[in-house]
Write a structure and sequence with these properties.
The protein has 338 residues and is an alpha/beta fold. It has 14 helices and 14 strands. It has helices at 10-21, 32-41, 83-90, 101-104, 115-121, 166-176, 188-199, 201-208, 214-234, 241-248, 266-273, 284-294, 299-313, 323-335; strands spanning 2-6, 25-29, 43-47, 50-54, 58-59, 72-76, 106-109, 126-133, 136-140, 143-146, 148-150, 153-159, 180-181, 252-254.
C-alpha cells in the first residue's frame, strides 16, 4: 500500500516519516514553506534516537500524482477546520481501473475529535477513524518532532461508524512496523470520545498556559466534568480512564529532545504558529453542540471555545490570559449559564 499523508504537519509528518523508515511507500502533502522545505531537504524527523531524514515525494495536491492507485490509502491529518477543503480536493480524483477516490479508496482520519470522520462519510464510502495518542510538534518548515518512547504513539483504529475489516488490519500491521501500537477495535468512536474529554483542556492550555498549577487543574476538572455530564445525557459511550491507562501504560513516555520546542498541545501550537484558526469548535464545541441538542448547559466549554477562537482570530499570544482571570470568567459563565 502507498500512504498519501494529507497534511504532513506534526502528526501527519511523524506518521509519514515513521512509515517511510519502515520501508513503506509514502507521499507527503503540504503547502507553502513547509512544502518547499520538504522538497529541498526532505522530511527531518526528530525522535529520541536522533534526527532522521526521509525524502518521499512531496506535493501540494493530487495533480502531480495523476491517477491514484488502487492500493493507495489516504491519511487525512489536517485539523478538523480544514477537513472540508481537503475532502473537496481529493474526493473526485480518478483511480486507476475506474471510479474515484471517494468511491474506492480508504480514508483514514488521523485527527482529534469525531467530526472529521462524520464529514468524511458524506463524501467517502470507506472511512476509518483513529484515536490519536501521539505527542508531536511542528518545529519549523520541513522539521517535526515526536518525543515518545519506547513507542512513538498509540493509534487505535477502526471503521467509522463502527466495525473492523482486513484493510484496517493491514494498515495497523504497517503502523506496528513503524514504531506505533495500532489496536484495531470495532468501537473506535468510544476511544475517540474518551480522548476528546482530555482534549477539552487544549483550549485552556492555549489561552492560559500549561495546566500545571492547582488552580488550572481544578478548572480543567470542572471543564471535563461538564463534558462527561453532556456525554451521559447524550447517551454517548466512552472508554473509562482505567481502560485508557491499561491500554497506554508506559508505552509512550515523552523524553527531552535536543532542539525540541517547548511542549504544548495541538491548539497551543496553532496559536504559537499564528495560523489564524484553532480546532476548539470541534473539541469543546462538540460538547457545546451535544449539550444544546440534549438540553444540558455547557457554559465552561462554551467559554473556552469562544476564547480560543478569539485568540486564534486576533493572533494573540498563546498562554497570555492569567489563569486567575480565566477562573473568574468561568465562575461568571456558570452563574449566567454561558
Amino acid at each position: 500500500m502507498r500512504y498519501i499523508i494529507i497534511g504532513a504537519g506534526a502528526v501527519g509528518g511523524t506518521v509519514g516519516g515513521r512509515l517511510a523508515q519502515a520501508g513503506r511507500e509514502v507521499v507527503l502533502v503540504a503547502r507553502g514553506r513547509h512544502l518547499a522545505a520538504l522538497r529541498e531537504h526532505g522530511l527531518r524527523l526528530r525522535v529520541p534516537e536522533g534526527e532522521l531524514t526521509y525524502r518521499p515525494p512531496a506535493v501540494e495536491g493530487p495533480d502531480p500524482l495523476g491517477e491514484l492507485r488502487a492500493d493507495d490509502v489516504l491519511v487525512l491529518s489536517v485539523k478538523t477546520q480544514d477537513t472540508v477543503a481537503a475532502l473537496d480536493t481529493w474526493a473526485d480524483v480518478p483511480v486507476a481501473g475506474g471510479g474515484t477516490a471517494a468511491e474506492r479508496l480508504p480514508l483514514v482520519c488521523l485527527q482529534n475529535g469525531v467530526e472529521g470522520g462524520r464529514l468524511a462519510l458524506r463524501r467517502f464510502r470507506h472511512v476509518y477513524g483513529v484515536c490519536v495518542w501521539l505527542p508531536s510538534a511542528f518545529v519549523e518548515p520541513g522539521v517535526v518532532s515526536a518525543a515518545g518512547a519506547p513507542l512513538t504513539g498509540i493509534l487505535t483504529l477502526g471503521r467509522i461508524p463502527h466495525g473492523t475489516d482486513d484493510t484496517a488490519r493491514r494498515i495497523a500491521a504497517d503502523l506496528t512496523d513503524a514504531h506505533f501500537e495500532a489496536p484495531v477495535v470495532p468501537d473506535v468512536a468510544r476511544w475517540q470520545y474518551a480522548k476528546l474529554l482530555a482534549n477539552l483542556g487544549n483550549a485552556l492550555e492555549a489561552v492560559a498556559g500549561p495546566v500545571a498549577s492547582d488552580e488550572a487543574r481544578a478548572l480543567f476538572a470542572r471543564v471535563r466534568a461538564e463534558g462527561e455530564a453532556v456525554l451521559a445525557a447524550a447517551g454517548v459511550p466512552y472508554a473509562s480512564a482505567a481502560e485508557e491507562q491499561a491500554a497506554r501504560g508506559d508505552k509512550v513516555t515523552q523524553v527531552p529532545l535536543d532542539g525540541g520546542p517547548r511542549g504544548g498541545g495541538s491548539s497551543w501550537q496553532s496559536l504559537v504558529r499564528g495560523t489564524g484558526t484553532i480546532e476548539a469548535d470541534y473539541l469543546n464545541g462538540e460538547i457545546v453542540l451535544l449539550g444544546r441538542l440534549h438540553g444540558v448547559p455547557a457554559p465552561l466549554n462554551e467559554l473556552l471555545q469562544r476564547l480560543a477562537d478569539r485568540f486564534a482570530r486576533e493572533r494573540r499570544a498563546a498562554g497570555s490570559l492569567p489563569v486567575a482571570e480565566l477562573v473568574r470568567l468561568a465562575d461568571e459563565a456558570e452563574r449566567h449559564g454561558g
